[in-house]
Amino acid sequence: MLRISRQLLEATLAYLRSELPSEGVGLWIGQRGRTVRVEQLENRHSTPQTHYTADPAEVLRILKSLDATGMELVAIYHSHPKGAAVPSESDKAQAFWRVPYVIVAMENENVRAWKLPEVEEVVLYVDE
Ligand SMILES: [Zn+2]
Predict the structure, then answer these.
(1) Does the global pTM surpass 0.70?
(2) Which of 57, 78, 84, 124 would be 113's cystine partner, CB 3.0–4.6 Å?
(3) Catalytically annotated residue among 23, 42, 109, 128
(4) Is 23 a catalytic residue?
């Protein structure tokens, strides 16, 4: 299960809009699938309009900072500036974390979550 408040989802969307026309990427941090914080990452891919790469060192720095807090990585999100909120071939190929991958289609702001590389949809609850 994956949960986020409407407010934190809006913060995620605002960041992803600001990254257009590139894909934006970041982390949802929380506990037991419930998001309490949104982190933004830099997209370092050479063609960021259609791909994303997060700096592993930046991800590890954030995860290390969580050790003492009881918080954990809840999901990894990124945007698709064009196209649907479904995983691309490269999304599947680079998915090695065992947390849901949230994909936002920027043309209609449809938000879906996936277990990858299996491509099983994960239910996302948005708390109003
Ligand atoms: Zn993607």
Answers:
(1) yes
(2) 124
(3) 23
(4) yes
